Amino acid sequence: MVVLYDGDGPADPRPGAVAVGVFDGLHRGHQAVLAAVRARAAERGLVPGVVTFDPAPAVVLTPERAPHRLQTLAQRLEGFATLGIERVRVVTFSAELAHEGADAFVDRVLVGEVHAAAVVVGEDFRFGRDREGDLARLVERGARAGFRAEGLRIVGEGGRFSSTAVRRALAGGDVLEAARVLGRPFTLRGRVAPGDARGRELGYATANLDLDPLQQLPADGVYAALARVAPGDWRAAAVSVGTRPQFYEDGARLVEGHVLDFAGDLYGVEIDLAFLARLRDQAVFANEADLTRRIALDVAATRSLAGRATSERAELLRWDVGQRR
After folding, report:
1. Is 276 helix (H, G, I), strand (E, B) or coil?
2. Are 127 and 110 in contact (CB under 8 A)?
3. CA 212, CA 226: separation in Å to the nearest integer?
């Protein structure tokens, strides 16, 4: 897959079928849009492509209200490749870009850079200065510029598939609902940073993830997960999200994963945590012995859940993109 950033040379001159959007999370609605792009590309001999934005426009336009992100850019790009996209234009969203008119964006990016012959967006797509452009304007502009634009209605069982729905599920600790909307487990990616070794002292060493402050997290609690500790190497992991109330009254919010049956050194390694199920709330125990017994139960539950998940991994982790790294 070819990825083009601001300032890169001319794109492949072949005409493309293009989806446009942030695509945070690459949920099942996004997947439907990309499937339509692949279909148009196959029908007309076009290059299947995506134009995406980083950071998301809201981070620049309304930072105080910007939603937390579901994926890193690297995860998003890996997802595009897994879903059959061959060309991606990453547009850096800035205050300057926010003042570009809708028609100017079409001419500069869709026509001039990715040579769009077909454009697919969600039906509520907006673009350009003050969100002046909508699907009707994109269709009209495309007719003049030589491409056909279409909008897809994105709905699913029980409601509309959306990044907002995923964030809402995660905020409530419902990682199963998040997985339903995403079509796969919600997966955090972060680099392992040194911690205070509390877990090691209890006999359960943890990998502490260094995450972007804008990263969406599941609600505080203990979860069963799978950890990708090396390309293609997924292992069971019991994960704690929260402030560790057993030890601190007002601690920092952390994500810590105890990777089962792993004795290696993960400091500085970028790992993925794929959340399978919520086991319990954070809690304060009478003493460390009671805490240790509870952790042992969490680990046993994780081993059982992750064992079933691993046996079905081709379906559960069908985006095992770590193998592409």
Report:
1. strand
2. no
3. 21
pLDDT tens for 240-297 read: 999 876 666 667 888 999 999 998 889 999 999 999 999 999 888 878 888 889 999 9
Q: What's the CA gap between 181 and 165, in Å, rounded?
A: 7
- Which of 91, 56, 61 has the alpha carbon at shortest distance from 212? 56
Cα–Cα dist 186/176, whole Å: 9
Q: Which residue has the higher pLDDT, 156 or 75?
A: 75
CA atoms within 13 A on the CB side of 158: 7
- Residues ≥6 apart with Cβ < 8 Å to 49: 16, 17, 18, 19, 37, 85, 86, 87, 88, 89, 114
| Six token digits for residue 98 | 């926010």
Q: What are the structural domains, with CATH classification, of the chain?
A: 2-152 (3.40.50.620), 185-324 (2.40.30.30)
Structure tokens at 271: 């790992």
> Buried b vs exposed e over 10-42: b needs ≥16 C-beta within 10 Å?
ebeeebbbbbbbbbbbbbbbbbbbbbbbbebbe
